[in-house]
């Protein structure tokens, strides 16, 4: 636990920094901690019975080690999936309501809308304002430039427009 706590403590210190800076710190400070954790886990696992419950947990992590370490090579990736789980909590809480979407197609549409709203929230964009603007403009917007209407691009364009007006 101390080794894992050290990794999380180092990650907390860089939370909120740009991806490039996080990647640099991870390479210098966190990658050695992760390597030590792997070495320790493999040594400890070799000493245990194959039926040991702790050993089974270690096997689970060690067989997924490459996926676990992916955050060390991409500064955009978070160490945990807490943000995604927080966003899904609303879906889980409303799962009985989602049963009554009317059809599979209705369920797919509801899932798409929920994804759009959650994406807007994750990008600090008011979903209601964004959807109202995008729905009013999308019919006249070129299909080859739909990416401009995504929340992060929309927010940047609004910020630029506000700055130009000032």
Automatic annotation (TrEMBL):
Top-level taxonomic group: Bacteria
Location of the Transposase IS66 C-terminal domain: 115-152
The Transposase IS66 central domain, residue ranges: 1-108
Pfam families, sorted: DDE_Tnp_IS66, DDE_Tnp_IS66_C
PANTHER family: BLL1576 PROTEIN
Protein name: IS66 C-terminal element
Organism taxonomic ancestry: Bacteria, Pseudomonadati, Pseudomonadota, Alphaproteobacteria, Acetobacterales
């Amino acid at each position: 636990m101390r080794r894992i706590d050290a990794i999380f403590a180092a990650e907390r210190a860089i939370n909120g920094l740009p991806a490039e800076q996080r990647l640099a710190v991870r390479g210098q400070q966190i990658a050695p901690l992760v390597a030590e954790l792997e070495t320790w886990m493999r040594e400890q696992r070799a000493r245990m019975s194959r039926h040991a419950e702790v050993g089974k947990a270690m096997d689970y992590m060690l067989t997924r080690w490459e996926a676990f370490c992916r955050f060390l090579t991409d500064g955009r990736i978070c160490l945990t999936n807490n943000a995604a789980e927080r966003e899904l909590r609303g879906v889980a809480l409303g799962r009985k309501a989602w049963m009554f979407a009317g059809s599979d197609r209705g369920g797919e549409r509801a899932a798409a809308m929920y994804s759009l709203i959650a994406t807007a929230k994750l990008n600090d964009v008011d979903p209601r304002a964004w959807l109202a603007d995008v729905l009013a403009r999308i019919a006249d917007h070129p299909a080859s430039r739909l990416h401009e209407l995504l929340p992060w691009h929309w927010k940047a364009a609004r910020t630029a427009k506000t700055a130009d007006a000032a």
